[in-house]
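quick one
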Amino acid sequence: MPKILVRKESNKEKLSNKFKSTKIKTYYVNDISKDYHCSDGVIKKSDLKRKDGSRILSNIKKEFILISPSFVDDYMRIKRGAQIVSLKDIGIIIAFTGVNKNSKVVDAGAGSGALACFLANICKEVVTYEIRDDFYKLVKDNIRFLGLKNIKVKKKDVFKGIDEKDVDLVVLDLPSPWNALKSVGKALKIGGFLVSYSPTIPQVMDFVRVVNNSSSFIHLRTLEIIKRDWEVEERRVRPVTTQTVHTGFLTFCRRI
Ligand code: SAH
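structure w/ S-adenosyl-L-homocysteine:
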């Protein structure tokens, strides 16, 4: 069971620091059966087994607070192969489709399995499709690492069919999502949602054209989430100078 060490400077340390900083460092400790070494010293394994909220000192007298990781802490450490869907985009998929503990979800392609695993954490069951051997294995590793039991990865081309029926949501993150519409139409329940994530506008144009020509789907909206992180330190409060500007466009459709 991993643990997290939160290193927050004490007031005494802050006063002695010429450049006042409220920076909080966190260390993710994968293996608590041995001492943990970091740039703030060595933390004894017996301390790593104490209860959450315990204050711990390293061998060089730096102070830490011990907590247990949440799903997101573990999720941030999954292995990445393909470009993953970002948290801001996952958030809006959940918000606009309302998926929950009763929902059955299909996802393709699995890539690193990031989106699929996040959805599995809140939905009843998730099946994710992947054509590449290497990514198929990677997703299996990530599912194991996160300890998820309600997600399955299938090594199968989603264009050739989806085995599941009566699905509440299908999410597509692949280069030509329009090729999956026939499979998706058969898998989704009437009223179910289809969300397609594409990094470029020509993909959105081609996808929406095919959706509009289909009698099985309606196009609800296409959107882009723009997120800006801010630096908040004393009176230096402003957007972080360099950050990711673009991830992808999300197109929401509904099976009718
Ligand atoms: N959403 C994923 C990333 C997907 S990357 C995540 O958050 O981790 C796109 C993936 O789609 C690639 O791994 C690619 O191999 C896979 N793919 C492309 N075409 C496919 C198809 N027809 N069926 C299944 N998977 C496909």
